Every structure is written in structure tokens, then in C-alpha cells.
Amino acid sequence: MKVMFGIWLLWGLATAAKQPNILFILTDDQGKLIGGLDHMPKLQENLIQKGATYPKHYCSVALCCPSRANLWTGRMPHNTNITDVGLPYGGYPKVVSAGWNDNYLPIWMQEAGYDTYYVGKLWNSHTEENYNNPYAKGFNGSDFLLDPWTYRYYNAKMTRNGETPVSYAGQYSTDVIKNKSLGFLDEALANPDRPWMLTIAPNAPHSNGSQDAVTGATWFGEPEYAPRHAQLFKDYKIPRDESFNKIIDGAVGWVADLPTLTEEEINYIDEFQRCRLRALQAVDEMIGELFEKLDKAGVLNNTYIFFSTDNGYHIGQHAMQPGKNCGYETDINIPLFIRGPGIPQNQTIDVVTSHTDLAPTFLSIAGTTRDGLDGKKIPTTIDAGNADNKSEHVAIEYWGIAVPEGIYGYKSDNDSQPGNSYRNNTYKGLRLVSDDYSLYYSVWCTNDKEFYNLKVPNAHQSYTIANRHLGQIIPRLDALMMVLKSCNGDSCREPWRQLHPKGYVNNLADALDSGFDEFYANQPKVSFSECSLGYHIYAEGPQEFNIYGSGSTAKRSEGEYVSKSHRCKTWERYTKLGCRLLMQETSVPITPIPRTSDAAIHTNMITHFKNDTTFGQSAQTCSTDIIRTEIVNSGMHPLPLLEI
């Protein structure tokens, strides 16, 4: 009996010591407001009703690859510098060259003792030519969708564990992904002493990669679905709410110039959305089978299950053709549901969270942490929603163009829309959500600004918070955005503390005290000098903000950023030329420009650029006159040209 008791005790201790498993389901372009969650019964039954809902969850950038980089690294897009779906500003080759293939969540989870598995879409521009150059690190087992076949629902190509890509032509891709996921789950369950993390990333309900058989033209058309779902949702129509087919009051840029949708276009996007809902049914069936397997294996109660998407989606709202890329609620407010040990069932947790917080949350489940992340662990108790110090902000950012989808987006012949895209879509945004206010504020690269009060629509100019009018509110938002637009670590998590280090101000309501009016009126403002297609620090205006009570400005330390593109922003003496040259190189340490007297600054800068080999041969061969001209023209230092 004593022997048996000892065996059971040891078994119990081993079971208790095992970290929980993690199942993460990540859809593509689903969104929350028009995402079809109500039409996914298995998701509702197994996860939403048995777990917690986070209605104030956001992505920081409404585009696939940058959002996934944000999620997998726990760093803001301006800190990953992955800002597009392909080169030169994004995609898998940029992920590799920026060093993130060696420094992201899957590797960290393995270091924490987890077996990691992945099925589906990992990155954009992850192709059958570059999938093994190098292979994506950090997985015990993987089966990746590869471009240009990722969005071909009946013509997927995938690579399993780095092997030669295999075509699944004629098979529905979500069903293929389901079968592969169940196989990896069996593999994980075969090692009961090892915790595991399985991520499943189907391409649904992303638009289908479509091509005109006659002209060869390509565009993103309505997603394809399995034949068994063809009869569903035939009478469905996109909700005709106040935003449907209505131009945004106060919009700027291309959004303000949109025509309203015609009846023909509305009929088309209704069917487009029906196709999205049908495509999600195979995902929902997969969810049901995954839960069934976890339950039968006896591990469901020791497994955290997360469900989310990379970014949101608009379709008819604000008179827009199908698409994303905007800072509006349709595009950035996305689903997050969590079920697992200690998570309240069928409850809403009223806290503001973002994709930047997911990596710290997964690491916390694994019993570890990591320095240098911009996010923080997501609260999992109802009481967190009632806390006085809960976060209220999400930084939003985007670089490049907006691409309308569907046949009417594709066929647009608007002169300002060359290449089926809207230019000048680079912006910085700020979303503030509390019990008392719900605001969105943005500054576009054209230096146009938007302000929307989502709690009291159409009351923008007469709006007040704590009896303070818009004229006092906007300077506070400008200052907060100044911190967040280039934040790192603590400054991303606690931006008000950067402005008020003594901790007296923790939210917008605190900042609206009239005693701070002069301080905020004199703050530098977010601005752009050009509409860049990617993140270039020289195009993004002032980088320093005033600190209350100190009489000084905030300066970011030399060691604050991990890659050369980030280090470029930490030293105010780097010129536009220096930044451009720096961005061409890989991540290696750089030597700061020596701080000397103002009279010698230009000389030292020129010497530094010409002699520092980390800038490459192009810097060493630049003439002194070119470098000197760039120093002055960049505006990085207000000295006249010096004779050198």
C-alpha cells in the first residue's frame, strides 16, 4: 500500500508540474464586427460559452504580415520594421534579414520546454523558392502554406518540416489544414510529459487569389468554400447599420473621396460576404474536431485555447469595397476568446488588449518572461475589468497603400488609384477606450488629422470630457501619440508615465487637469515630411517629447533598440542619408557619433559616415559635399554649412 501511495504521489506531482498546453487558432482577415462569429456554432459552443471574451482587443496594424510580426515578437510594428507583405518592407525575406527568424515566440516557447507545432500560413512572401533559405525556425513540427498558392483554396502548396513542397490541387485547403493539425495533435499527445503549443492558421476567410483566364490579370476575389456549404446563407445581407454605404463624416484623404456604392456593387459585396461566411464553416468544423480530440485525450482541462485573427475587415461600411488597411474599428477591432485553466466561463473581460500582448501572455502560461517586449500579459479575471489602473490605449500605425478587393475594387479607374491601390495611406493612430470615452485620433502622412468620438457619434466638435472641450483634448492626444509612435518597452505599456514620470497622470482624464494646459500646448506634434511606403524615421517628424516638470525632452538611449533600423532613431544626429544607408545593412552593432562641441558636429558626422564600415562601401565613397548637404537638408541639426 505504501508503495502504491508513493507511485500515485509521484504521478500527481509530475502531473501538477507539467505546464498547460496551448492551442492557438488564427484565422485570416476575419475581424469582429463583420466576422461571422455568430455563424460559427462549434466556436460558440466550445470556446465562447466555455471561456472569456475580450471585446476590446485590437491589432496595431491592419495588414497580414506586419500584424503577425507584431504578434510573434511582442513588439510594435515600428520596432519590428516589418510593415508590408513583401520586399522591401516586409514578407518572409525581410523577417529573416531583420533577425526575427532567430528571435520570436516559437523559439522562446521551445526554450521554455514546449514542443511547438504549426500548420497553415506563417508569413507572406513565404514561397516555394525561399521556404528553406532558411527554413522557419522554432518548430518541432510544421506544415506551411506557401505563396503564391496561399490564397488558392483549391490549389494549395505546403512544405512539411522543410521537405519539398507538395501540391494539394483539387483539395479544399482548410480541410487539408484540419487533417494535418489533427496529425500534429496526435504527435503532441503521444508525449504526455511534454507541454505543447499548436498554432493553426487557415487562410479563411481571406479573399481568393483570382486570375482572369483571358488577360492574366490578378486580384483578390470572393473566397471559395467547400461544396457541402454551398447552400448556406443564401438570404444573408450585410447589416445595413449607420456606417453602411455612408462616407465618414470628418474623413480625410482617399476615404473622403469615395463614391457611395451602387445597387449592383451592394449586391456583389453581399454575395462576397456570404462566401466569407461559407469559407468559415470548414474552420468551425475543424474547431469542433479539435475540441473532441482534446476531450477524449483527457487534456482539455489542462489546455489553453486561444482564438483570434490577424486583422479586421471592412465590406460596405463607410462605402468601402472589401478590404482592410484602415485604422477604423472594422479593421482593427478583432476577436479574442480564451478558454483554459482559471479562465471564467461565458464571461466578458472588459479590458483593452492588443496583439502586442499575446506573446507575453503565452510566455506567462509557459512560466517565463522575456525582456524587451512592448506588450504585457493579458488579464484573465473579471475583476481586471473593474481595476482603476487598467490600460485604455492602443497605438495604431500603418505604412504604404490601401488595396480594395473584389471585382469593383480591382476595376477602379480612378486616377488617384494607380495599380489598384490608394496612395498616401501612411498614418499614425490612437485608440482610447474607457468607461467614460471611446476615441479614435489619427495623423496621416499628408498631415491631415481625424478625430472620432465613438461613444457619442456626430458630436465631435461639441464633445467634452471632464468638462474640457476638444481644444483641450486634442493636445493631450497629440502628446500621447508622440510617445507611442516610437515607443519601446515601458513607454509602450505606460506612455503617460513617460510624460509624467511622478505617476500623477495615468489616463486621459487625469491629463485633462487644467494645470497641464500650457505643458500640452507646447508639446511637439506628430507630423510627416513625406508619405513613405515603409517605416523611415527621417519622414516621421519630431522624435522627442517634453517631460512635465523637468524642463527637458525625452531622449532614447543608444541601447534601447535591437536592430539597426531601430538604432537609427535613437541618435538625433543621424541624417537622412545615414538612415538610408543604415537600412540597407543587416542587424549589427553601430558606433554612435561622438558628442562634441556644436562647431565640430558636422565634421564628426562626415568622418563617422565615411569611416564606419557598418554603413557599407556606399557611405565610404560618398563625397563630403553630398554628406554635408544631407546633414543640413535633413533638418536633424540646425547648424549652417561649415567649411571643412
From TrEMBL:
Top-rank taxon: Eukaryota
Keywords assigned by UniProt, alphabetized: Glycoprotein, Hydrolase, Signal
Enzyme Commission (EC) number: 3.1.6.1
Known catalytic reactions: an aryl sulfate + H2O = a phenol + sulfate + H(+)
Claim: Glycosyltransferase is one of the keywords in the record: no
Location of 3-oxoalanine (Cys) modifications: C64
Gene Ontology terms: biological process: phenol-containing compound metabolic process
Domain Sulfatase N-terminal: 20-367
PROSITE patterns named among the record's database cross-references: SULFATASE_1
InterPro entries tied to this protein: Alkaline_phosphatase_core_sf, Arylsulfatase, Sulfatase_CS, Sulfatase_N
Pfam families xrefs: Sulfatase (PF00884)
Database matches in SUPFAM superfamilies: Alkaline phosphatase-like
Gene Ontology molecular function, alphabetical: arylsulfatase activity; glycosaminoglycan binding; N-acetylglucosamine-6-sulfatase activity
Keyword Glycoprotein attributed: yes
PTM summary: The conversion to 3-oxoalanine (also known as C-formylglycine, FGly), of a serine or cysteine residue in prokaryotes and of a cysteine residue in eukaryotes, is critical for catalytic activity.
Signal peptide from the UniProt entry: 1-16
Family: Belongs to the sulfatase family.
The protein, known as: Arylsulfatase
Organism of provenance: Aspergillus oryzae (strain 3.042)
Upper taxonomic lineage: Eukaryota, Fungi, Dikarya, Ascomycota, Pezizomycotina
